[in-house]
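Notes to self after the Tuesday call (sharing in case useful).
The group wants a holo model before anyone commits to mutagenesis around the pocket. I volunteered. Ligand is copper (II) ion. Logging inputs and output together so the record is complete.
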Amino acid sequence: MVSRRDLFTGAAALVGAGVVSRVGAASLPEAVIMQSAATQVPPPPPNGRPYNPVVTLNGWSLPWRMNNGVKEFHLVAEPVVREFAPGMKANLWGYNGASPGPTIEVVEGDRVRIFVTNRLPEHTSIHWHGQPLPNGMDGVTGLTQKGIQPGKTMVYEFEAKRPGTFMYHPHADEMVQMAMGMMGFWVTHPKNPNFMKVDRDYVFLLGSYDIEPGSFVPKTSTMLDFNLFTFNSRVFPGIDTMVARQGERVRIRFGNLTMTNHPIHLHGHEFEVTGTDGGWTRPESRWPEVTVDVGVGQMRAIEFVANNPGDWAFHCHKSHHTMNAMGHDVPTMIGVSQRDAAKKISSIIPDYMAMGSTGGSMGEMEMPLPENTLPMMGGQGPFGGVEMGGMFTVMKVRKDQKRGDYSDPGWYKHPAGTLAYEWNGAPPEAVRSTSAGGQSMPGPKPAQNVEFNVRKPSGHSGH
Ligand SMILES: [Cu+2]
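Result:
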């Protein structure tokens, strides 16, 4: 598991931490670059209106400088290297050293000025997804602005009017730039920091990539058949866990920048959808859920009271989205005995392994992998291999987790009598149902009666 480090007290990858320019207000704000994929818990805001910062899963929040009451940020679109999980890196495009780019946090009513420098080999733009803003700041290449040419910087400026959950992404050569990982999160906090206050507020973006084993660059022309489904361009077991102290109110916000929907599912708790792309949902419009589907281009904020201690799975419920790379178009071999064939092939190819005749379980299987790829699943839990990959992580709820502490508390210790156990009694006699299917489709009669019921051909039938 990746260790967590505080953004401003120990991150070795942080370059240029002096955010306020030494040159003066007429200059570009310094571009803060981050190459680490560790979750960086942001400190309280150093100036401006107060707010409760969000925690970006395997990410960080972008520092700003105040310039005559305007919050100035500097985003740099550039090629980046992102580690999806230990053992696999990808050459992506992102912002300020990472993909996704840093989370931008502002407060309702803030005047915001964002300098966007393009260090990509082609033009780009940024669309501020979900923001009410002047049309000319909307970032749609060709429609509302010219593309930002390579080496150039353009400035976006608007008032962050509506509090809520937003994203940023290019509206230029989208198929390529999104497939290459260009995206980021944006949170506009309410002016009143006590409005819908929570104890922990996590954010991440859902992404999808098609990176063949042994390759380092995503295939940008893939339409739907992606092989890596990510939370903030990380796959399990490379995704940090989320933590909460028992009894705390937790918010998780996520945006979907893939090409399909993702039913996001939390174990052990009921949550309510408290926010969408359009802002906060009214309390009377909420109902309890354990899974919420987030459509393409949508955002959701869910909230729950972490009242149930344990290590709770949190994942996309599409089972192929909790798998990592490798082939998905393989025949199903369940029930097919390959023993004889495997013996013959092994004499020619010593490493050959018969696969899947009793299911696909590979959680603890060690196989030689091609260079720069990941096993389909492979996280190690306290009881063995966690047979998951991709969009999967764990929400760790603990009685003794300190407030504001995001460090990993280790595995849950189950109180006596609360762990599933093996039953050692004698197996009962198997009873076949003959009434399955009900009236519309009665089940077949037991096999031993078939012969008995058959009407034998006879030359005298009908007489
Ligand atoms: Cu999914």
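Two things stood out.
Helices lie at 174-179, 339-348, 450-453.
The mean pLDDT is 87.
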